[in-house]
Here is the input.
Amino acid sequence: MTHDTAATTVRHLPRSLPGDRAGGAPSDTGPSGGLHGIHVPLVTPFTPAGDIAADALEALAHEVFDAGATGIVALGTTAETAALDEAERDLVTGVCARVCGERGAPLTVGAGASGTRAAEASLARLARWPQARAALVTVPPFVRPSAAGVLAHFSRLAEVSPVPLIVYHVPYRTGQSLDAAALRALGSLPGVAGVKYAAGGIGQDAVDLLGDLPEGFEVLAGDDAYLSPLLALGAAGGILASAHLATARFAELAAAWRAGDVARARPLGHALARWSSAAFAEPNPAVVKGVLHAQGRIPSPGVRLPLLPASDIAVTAALESLAGL
Here is the structure.
């Protein structure tokens, strides 16, 4: 049985993301083109009536770039993608693509599905946005295939994707844990540029993986509180919801570890970990949205069911933690 799709077929994609910078975006350089530094997975701002506040999303994207973000992610978990309909997902992607085109900055778009065919179709849609430089693709959730099945899944997706893939390894959401050997096998696939590593901590597998990475394959921290130690171990950057706030300090931390400035990096890393813990005191992105609304940066703190808005206690505590930075 053939597996032809409507996708723009790209065989043996280069691993690197085109990362030349232009406009007002930061000009720091790093491994794998744009796959380094701090990438902010943008929230989806809503109006008080519950519609997408596209102007606020656009402003937010520019703000994080002005503060030092390397790139942004559209349609990540933080965007409440599961609660958006197809037209809304296209609107969010279009806004982010326009901003990244203006800034000459990398755009990563969340894609994928539990089934390989559905994931192929999700990736095919990205050909509509030439500004997209990578796809963030979750390890298949709920299905829990073997490590060999995960490898076959990503091998197929890498063959047909119009952009390089970033594997989203988040076992506490997918129910599928992969060891260092499995992640290394994924990283050896042509067209797989990196992994968003969100394993819920730093164990032996993280140490083993970062100690022996495939050529051209990078690790981005996905658990915000563990950014600093992962950078110390050799991660290239992070995809971090808490970096909506204090974006410049997160960029400073990444630069400090890259420069080997331990005296600057260590205390800053501890401070940012405390802020990240406050930002995740309630289900993401409720607290982040609450703080952004309190700062007047989005028109409503609202999230969509089954999420609930953050409590006043959580938002107040997060604002106090943020002030301490």
